[in-house]
Each structure stands twice: as structure tokens, then as C-alpha cells.
Amino acid sequence: ADSWVIMVTAQTPTNIAVIKYWGKRDEKLILPVNDSISVTLDPAHLCTTTTVAVSPSFAQDRMWLNGKEISLSGGRYQNCLREIRARACDVEDKERGIKISKKDWEKLHVHIASYNNFPTAAGLASSAAGFACLVFALAKLMNAKEDNSELSAIARQGSGSACRSLFGGFVKWKMGKVEDGSDSLAVQVVDEKHWDDLVIIIAVVSSRQKETSSTTGMRETVETSLLLQHRAKEIVPKRIVQMEESIKNRNFASFAHLTCADSNQFHAVCMDTCPPIFYMNDTSHRIISCVEKWNRSVGTPQVAYTFDAGPNAVLIAHNRKAAAQLLQKLLFYFPPNSDTELNSYVLGDKSILK
Ligand code: PMV
């Protein structure tokens, strides 16, 4: 009678911030010092697939990441598991005669298997897709009734940027005001159909693991950078308003200007940290120069660039024509297997090769 298993599989794409989150005001609850805005990629590229299973025969919670068992003892996993369990509801499978009551979930254990179709922890925001997918799959398994914004506040406690992956399209993470963090959650700005001619290309400069984790980096920045305080108080609130406008009006010139400026300021804030943090390398800098020169020579921006906590370039092209030209330039200036280290291209959103 104890041999049954119930499984749920979910797939969640990663997201790329165009107005960056960097710095926590509360490390335990993962509450940020400013709002941020991101674009969620197409699930066909850069996504996590997670299967969660429950069975009375499971003796403990266990998790496998890309086929390798990992420990669930960390606070981030425990937060997500605890918060979803607290919201679990009755589940019934009439066909198989299985009934799980709200109370049973406290004693039942889960097994979790998660796969990334891209390198883990290489500055490609793998934790964003991972925790969003985990929380979503667990919520479905345990029949939690919370909507995606409410689930985002739970995913946030796994990894801050994860809260933005509960929605497609462009998403805003509102920093919130209250101390318990319940209003620090994600809302959709526009859905994925609103601006579907954008093409996202990720130039993988290096797929090695980053040297400074975002947790350590943010802590050091919050403790030492005066520029961060200025950014969070004076710059980001205005940029958030302008960015939402640009997205709603599909104003690429303004969107590109804000995206590049915010990426550059995020890396300036890293440089303003003591000791300074370097996430970009020479190849990253050369890509920036190449895009800036091109945009200037055309007169209106064709491509926006943004870099997270690593050297890989996320390039957002205005349309397929600009994306095709961009790929041509990248292949010319950064030929694969050359000493520039640029080793592959990942196409986000709509593949221009198909
Ligand atoms: O959520 P974390 O801890 O992986 O931090 C992500 C930070 C950045 O990717 C650099 C910026 C962002 O807003 O995603």
C-alpha cells in the first residue's frame, strides 16, 4: 500500500536583468536594496527542468542536480521547502485511491531531480531558473494555492534573482517595504508576446565558475561602496520608471541606453568595492567597445549589452536583421577557438538560425 509515487515536472527559463539587483538589505530573507527589471528567456534555451516526487517510502528529502546528489541542508533549500510545506493542501488521486491530507505533508519526504541545459554557476544565472523551478514544481505537487507573485516571494528566499523567473516577458522585482519581506516579490511588466522581435544572443566568454559568488560580492559591496548607496537611492528608482516606459512603448533606443548604462554602473559598483571585484575580462571589454562603436556608426542603437556576475556577454538585438549582423561581427572579431576565449554562442528567445 506504501508503494505509490506522485511526480510533477516543471520547466523554467532563466532571466537576465536589464536593471540590476546588487546588494541585500536583509541577507537572511534576501531583501534587495533596489528594485530590478529582467527579461525572461524562451524556455527552449537556458532552462532548468525539475521533477519532484513524493512517496511514503522516501525516508528523507533528497536532491540531485545534473545527476549528482547535492545536500539540501543549506538555508536556501530549507527556506523554500519549509515555506511551500506550510502552504500545502489536500491532494487526491481518485484513480489510484491515494489521498494526502494537509497534515500528511509534514511527515512525507520529497525527492528532487533538477537539470540545467547550460553551465551551472558560470554567470549565466543558473540559480535563478533553478530555485524558481523548484518552488513552482513543489507548489504544484503539494497543491499550494498561491499565485505566481506569492510563489516568487518564496523563490526569492532561494536566490534573489529567482523570483523574476516565475513570469515570462519583462518582470519587475519590487524591493518592498515591510520587514518580513512579504511584499518583496515579482510582477509581470509585459508578457512575452509584447516585444517578440527582440533577439537575445549570449556570447560565452568563459564557462568557468565565477571567482566571487554573488552572495560574497554583494556583502562586500554593501559594506564598503558609497557608490552603491548613491545608485540605490538616487539612480535606480528613476531608471526603473524610465525602463518600464521604454518596454511598454517598445522604445529600443531608450531601452538599449538604460540597459548598457545599468550594466556598466553595476560593474563600476563592483570596482568601487573594497577589495575590488572584477567580473568582466578583456574579451568582455572588447565586446562592449565593438557594440558601442557599431551603435554610434549607425546613429541609432542596434544592440544592447549587459553582463552579470561573470564575463559572458548578453546581447539584445533590436530585431533579426540586427542579430544576424551582430553574429557576423562577433564571428569576425572573436573567431571560435582563438585566444580571445570566446567559445560559443547561445541564442536566447527566437533562434535566428532557424
Ligand atoms: O540572485 P543572485 O544571488 O544570483 O544574484 C544575481 C545578481 C545579478 O545577476 C548580477 C543581477 C541580477 O539582477 O540578476
Automatic annotation (TrEMBL):
EC number in record: 4.1.1.33
Keyword Lipid biosynthesis assigned: yes
Cross-referenced InterPro entries: GHMP_kinase_C_sf, Mev_decarb, Mev_diP_decarb, MVD-like_N, Mvd1_C, Ribosomal_Su5_D2-typ_SF, Ribsml_uS5_D2-typ_fold_subgr
Keyword Nucleotide-binding part of the UniProt annotation: yes
SUPFAM superfamilies reported in the protein's UniProt record: GHMP Kinase, C-terminal domain, Ribosomal protein S5 domain 2-like
Pfam families linked: MDD_C (PF18376), MVD-like_N (PF22700)
Domain Mvd1 C-terminal: start-end pairs: 200-354
Domain Diphosphomevalonate decarboxylase-like N-terminal: 13-186
Reactions mediated catalytically: (R)-5-diphosphomevalonate + ATP = isopentenyl diphosphate + ADP + phosphate + CO2
Keyword entries, A-Z: ATP-binding, Lipid biosynthesis, Lipid metabolism, Lyase, Nucleotide-binding, Steroid biosynthesis, Steroid metabolism, Sterol biosynthesis, Sterol metabolism
Coiled-coil regions listed in the entry: none
Domain of life: Eukaryota
Family, as annotated: Belongs to the diphosphomevalonate decarboxylase family.
NCBIfam families according to UniProt: mevDPdecarb
Record's function text: Performs the first committed step in the biosynthesis of isoprene-containing compounds such as sterols and terpenoids.
PANTHER family xrefs: DIPHOSPHOMEVALONATE DECARBOXYLASE (PTHR10977:SF3)
Protein name: Diphosphomevalonate decarboxylase
Organism: Hevea brasiliensis
